[in-house]
User: What shape does this take?
Amino acid sequence: MASPAAQPQRFVALDTHKHYIVPAAVDQQKAVVLQPCRVDLHRFDAWMATHLKPTDAVVIEAGPNTWDVYDRVQPHVASVIVAHPYRVRAISSARVKTNARDALILAQLLAANLIPEVWVPPHEVRDLRSLVAQRTRLVRQRTQARNRLQAILHRHNVAAPDGDAFAPAARPFWEALRLGTVETLCVRQDLVLLDTLQPLIDQAEAALLQQSTCSPWSDQVAYLLQVSGVAVINAMTLLSAIGPVERFPTPGQLVSYAGLGASVYDSGETHRTGRITKQGRRELRTAMVEIAWVAVVRDPHWQAVFARLSLRMVPGKAIVAVARKMLVMIWHLLTHHQADHHADVQKVANKLMTWAEALRREGRHGLSIAEFTRQELTRLNLGQQTDTMSRWGRIVRLPPAAALTAPPMA
Assistant: This one.
């Protein structure tokens, strides 16, 4: 691959599609040096070997196979960037739109240095995002099945059994319902679906737990667990969406990335703000709102913040404001590797111990549960004087802080 400092001689655009790619290229004077053509994906490697040069700069239009194309192209050229699909207005708002025109416009914008880029996540971030997305899909299917079963009870004015209506112990209740043939079939199939989905969800969550002990995530999970409402699974969801926090120089940029920032109209004499933009990573925004709801129930500090905000806005807007404040705090925790000064040491220790219990001994790197808990408290610079903790009605002793070597900082 050519040195990144070398001046590109050609600017190549790749308009990606499901089964083919349309390339085009211009030179430094924006003259067309490679006419648009259709290249099937199974012939793309051969096309690259013939047409791409080490001095080329390449832009890829974001699509379903963007990262695969990026990985294949990157070793052969000087530079590769991925165009932001919603910000390339010359393409998205064109009245005459064809693959050939799109590729040429992309190449010309690249030559003019006018391409809004998308951050290219490293492989460990892509893998974690895929795992989080898989669990989210499975949980959504489980929720849909439960909602269908609840709807049947509502239609027939039947009260659900006490406790977990979908637990194995409640199956005689569902089997004893007197329903029509079709509804009986639907109930039976949804119950089978729940039995099938739960082991798959457990496998996905076990994989997320395993990832939580791997680099680079193992150095960051503890900082998130000290936040009220955050457990290991949604901590991994946050980390998968954020990636390296260093790419956000300010907390405001992280808030915008989550789509939690207010929309702004400022033109002439008019200035107004509106609802949140919702332009960003949806899973990050959703996770933060869920975390905020838990925090305002369990944490006195966030309860007070929510109560104060609720005096001047409806609860739905107040919880979004809390989520935004919590995300700013998370930026500071991950960026500066510091403890949350609102954190309750006993609650944090309990969450760390829950994390330790879910891991096997190899996941704890040979440490006992108490030793692992003390190690992570030391990482957070919390609880140096805490020798015991209360857990499920019993007292658990922690090893002295000086007995373990402090873990390396992130």
In short: The longest strand covers residues 20-27. Residues 10-118 form a domain with the Nucleotidyltransferase; domain 5 fold (CATH 3.30.420.140). The CA atoms of residues 150 and 160 lie 8 Å apart. The two ends are 31 Å apart (CA to CA).
